[in-house]
Every structure is written in structure tokens, then in C-alpha cells.
Design brief:
The chain is mainly α. The protein is built from 15 helices and no strands. This is Sulphur transport domain-containing protein.
């Protein structure tokens, strides 16, 4: 029940923050609307303030070209998938809850991505990792910079707030209403709720890995999957988004620009394979990982943003 409640709060927060719209994600990658970045950095900054004592995220090495090669490759696929679909592993559940067609097509592709990852990609990555003899490492930004944790967090907060301020002052296309201004805070508070209720930070892409594990258990006689918490979180997220959209219709835009079904499906597939290779998605790495000063999260999300910025103008 804790996972369901936490997911419901996060789903409602995503709708309230206004980052569930496909156009918001796509236009951010095209540098035409800065709402997604503003909200994301606000969520990270509000999370980093209180959660620095939890365990940071480790790297996701594959053994091809460095300790963070899985984060780079996975981040690239994640960003490309987000740019194609106008969604992400977390917002797609909010899109489904709000009744957006894009969310359903992206969900279909994402489920196939989860099946592909658990059935083939994960084993191939494991084989390559063992062949190369590499192991995940947990390194934080303060360790890389040679600074204290408190100093690094303060610098990180300053950078986040500076980027938010600059994007508001010097760009156009952002609907800087009271809800967009507090959008990041909504998500940051849902992070706090998740920690208090289920002793875990936010992360959503693992739900597709759980679905894949159950599928292969049924079809290949694979071991019985023991984890379903991420799937319950995803169900809760969809429910929370649906409830808020029905209770407060003003949160849902009247006219929504949907993504083409093929792009949404392919994007969903790519972003799930990528997020699992990288060990997390914009929720797990972007909100949770960066708030813990995880180097792997910075590598993943920087690569994802760069990839999305390359792909979005080509297809939209």
C-alpha cells in the first residue's frame, strides 16, 4: 500500500507541475519552452536540501569504454526516446491517467522495451561486464571535486537556482504561473512523502523491468520475480494523475498536441532500454540521483539532455 500511495502522490504532483504534456518535453529539447528544465531543477534542488544522507547511485558499467559507459549509452537512448515520444518513463503514467493518447502508445513501446531488456539486453550487458571485469562504483560529486558534501550541495543548489533564474529572465515560451513556479516543489514534496512512507526515493523505470521479469517467468520458466514495488508505484502514479485530473480539470490543458503513434511507440521502447542500461530514468537519476550528488546521475542526465536536443529538431 505504501508504494501505491507514494505513486499516487507523485502522479498528482506531475499533473500539478504541468510536465506531463508531450509538447512541454519536446519543446524543451528544442529550447522553445523551458518549463521542463525549470521544474526538474526545482525538484532536484528541493530534494537535495534534505536527502543528502541517503546512499547515492552507483555507476552502470558495461565494459566497453569506461566506468560510465552504460550511463552514457543508456542516457543517449533515454534522451532520444524522450524526444521522439514527448514522454519519459514517469510522465507516461501521468499521461495515461490524464487520458492522453500519447501515453498509451508510449506505454506499449515501453512494455516492449522492458521485455527486450530483461529477455536479451540485460544478459548481453552482464556478459560483457564480466568479460571486461568491471564493477559498479559509487562516486559522488563532492568526491570528484575534492570538496565537503555541504559545500558541494550548496554549490549545486546555487547552480540549479541560477539556471532557473536565467531561463526565466532571458528566455520566452515559459508559462511562469504560480503552478509552474512551484512545480518542482510539488515533485520535491512527493519525494519526501515517498521516503517517509516507504523508505525509498522516487524511481519508476524499474516497473518495466518487473513486468519483463514476470513475462519471462511465464514464458521461459524463469525464476519467480520477487519484486513488484515499482509496478505498484506505477499503478499508484496513474491513479493519482487520474484523480487530480478529474477533481481539478483546470490542471489539464484543453488542447493537447499529441505525438504521432509510431514516434511514441519507438520512443517508449528506446527510453526503457536506455534507462535500465543506465540504472535509472529522469525520476531515479534526475530527481533522486542528482539530489544525492551522484556522479552517475549527472553523466546519465547530461547525456540524455544532449541526445534529446539532437533528436527533437529532426522529428518534430
Amino acid at each position: 500500500m505504501a508504494a501505491l500511495f507514494s505513486g499516487a502522490v507523485y502522479g498528482a504532483s506531475t499533473i500539478a507541475a504541468g510536465v506531463y504534456l508531450p509538447s512541454t518535453i519536446i519543446n524543451q529539447f528544442k529550447f522553445q519552452d523551458w518549463h521542463m528544465l525549470q521544474t526538474s531543477l526545482g525538484a532536484v534542488a528541493s530534494s537535495a536540501y534534505g536527502y543528502v544522507k541517503l546512499k547515492p547511485r552507483s555507476s552502470s558499467p558495461i565494459g566497453l569504454f569506461g566506468q560510465y559507459d552504460g550511463n552514457v549509452i543508456g542516457g543517449f537512448l533515454l534522451g532520444a526516446g524522450m524526444a521522439l515520444s514527448g514522454s519519459c518513463p514517469g510522465t507516461l503514467f501521468a499521461q495515461v491517467g490524464a487520458g492522453l493518447r500519447t501515453g498509451f502508445y508510449t506505454l506499449g513501446g515501453a512494455i516492449l522495451g522492458g521485455l527486450a531488456y530483461t529477455g536479451y539486453v540485460a544478459q548481453a550487458a552482464k556478459t560483457q561486464r564480466e568479460k571486461a571485469g568491471v564493477q559498479p562504483e559509487t562516486v559522488t560529486l563532492d568526491e570528484n571535486l575534492g570538496l565537503s558534501n555541504d559545500t558541494t550541495v550548496a554549490l549545486f543548489e546555487s547552480v540549479c537556482l541560477s539556471i532557473i533564474g536565467a531561463s526565466v529572465a532571458y528566455t520566452t515560451g515559459s508559462d511562469w504561473s504560480i503552478f509552474s513556479a512551484g512545480g518542482g516543489l510539488f515533485i520535491g514534496l512527493s519525494q519526501l512523502f515517498s521516503i517517509l512512507v516507504r523508505r525509498s526515493m522516487i524511481g519508476i523505470s524499474g516497473s518495466f523491468e518487473e513486468v519483463g521479469n514476470h513475462f519471462w517467468w511465464l514464458t521461459r520458466d524463469a525464476p519467480w520475480p520477487t519484486s513488484r514495488q515499482n509496478t505498484l508505484f506505477a499503478v499508484g502514479m496513474t491513479s493519482g494523475a487520474w484523480v487530480l485530473a478529474k477533481a481539478f480539470p483546470s490542471f489539464v490543458k484543453g488542447h493537447v498536441v499529441e505525438t504521432e503513434p509510431l514516434l511514441a511507440g519507438v520512443g517508449g521502447f528506446l527510453m526503457i532500454v536506455g534507462s535500465r542500461l543506465a540504472g535509472g530514468c529522469p525520476s531515479g537519476h534526475g530527481v533522486s540521483g542528482l539530489s544525492l550528488m551522484s556522479t552517475s546521475s549527472l553523466v546519465t542526465m547530461s547525456t540524455a539532455f544532449a541526445a534529446g536536443s539532437l533528436v527533437a529538431p529532426l522529428f518534430h
